[in-house]
Amino acid sequence: MLFLLFPDVDPGPGMQKPQLLVPVMATPNGTLVHPAYFLLVGIPGLGPDIHFWLAFPLCFMYAMATLGNLAIVLIIRVERRLHEPMYLFLAMLSTIDLVLSSVTMPKMASLFLTGIQEIGFNVCLAQMFLIHALSAMESAVLLAMAFDRFVAICHPLRHASVLTGPTVAKIGLAALTRGFVFFFPLPFILKRLSYCQTHMVTHSFCLHQDIMKLSCSDTRVNVVYGLFIILSVMGVDSLFIGFSYILILKTVLELASQGAALKAFNTCISHLCAVLVFYVPLIGLSVVHRLGGPTSLLHVIMANIYLLLPPVVNPVVYGAKTKEIRSRVLHMFSQGGR
């Protein structure tokens, strides 16, 4: 194995500017070049001083996401009366958000605070896999929650028999397996590419589209497979969620009592907020990336919203709208104040 020393690339004022050692490996198809690490840009156009001050609200968001999601998981775990499908799915969603925020936010905070931009090549691929796999799992759980609301509102007498404890566990296992299986090939199809140009990742974390753009090899396989999984996973999930809510709305509008209709639809508000917070930035980010061109500030902002907002917002929304969780949290605070 040979090592080539590439010229320094200026990562921006005040940031570290390390040299990059690139291994060169001979393959049947030619020379395969992998960087020892990538450099994370953070938010393009912002200097180190602004990055430094942005680290503090980011740390606050991480604390909120961690405490909020952990509180929801523990409350549902302790309260046996919350061992119902809706709350079990919520516990799954909070667990995913807890892991997702831990995969992204600490590294971002370290980048903003210290200016250390390097992230190892394999570490970057691992982070990329976890981000995409966890996002797919979250999408599956949101679909399961939509199905739960559909059965509860449209077929209330069958809800207990359809969504039993074992069924909920199987749905959770299916969400975990699908996220792993669909996105497991991504690191390997990225490793088959050569990276002999820039090594600057124009985000604060690693995403498949951004790493792929750094390659000087043919990326058609990556483009096709990336489009396939985004359509077959998030695309299919969003269609079924939309279809579920069409049927729910139809059933609600057919209810004779306006009060009963409002009460039934009110049980969906928290889930609708979670769906919008997750899918609107995801769709926007996918459209912007598919349009091609250099990564802009819009790309970065939408990616940050897509990854950072749901873990922070979901516990707040569900805590405020779910009476059982809200009362338990208030009870905990009242006990702590004595």
Automatic annotation (TrEMBL):
Belongs to the G-protein coupled receptor 1 family. It comes from the Eukaryota. Signal peptide: none annotated. GO terms for cellular component: plasma membrane. Coiled coil: none annotated. InterPro entries: GPCR_Rhodpsn, GPCR_Rhodpsn_7TM, Olfact_rcpt, OR51/52/56-like. This is Olfactory receptor. CDD domains: 7tmA_OR51-like. The keyword Cell membrane applies. Putative odorant or sperm cell receptor. It holds the Pfam family 7tm_4. One of its GO terms (biological process) is cellular response to lipid. The keyword Amino-acid biosynthesis does not apply. SUPFAM superfamilies: Family A G protein-coupled receptor-like. Residues 68-318 form the G-protein coupled receptors family 1 profile domain. GO terms for molecular function: G protein-coupled receptor activity; olfactory receptor activity. The chain crosses the membrane at residues 20-40, 52-75, 87-105, 125-147, 168-190, 223-248, 269-291, 297-318. It comes from Lynx pardinus. It is found in: Cell membrane; Membrane. Keywords: Cell membrane, G-protein coupled receptor, Membrane, Olfaction, Receptor, Sensory transduction, Transducer, Transmembrane, Transmembrane helix. It is a multi-pass membrane protein. Its main location: membrane.
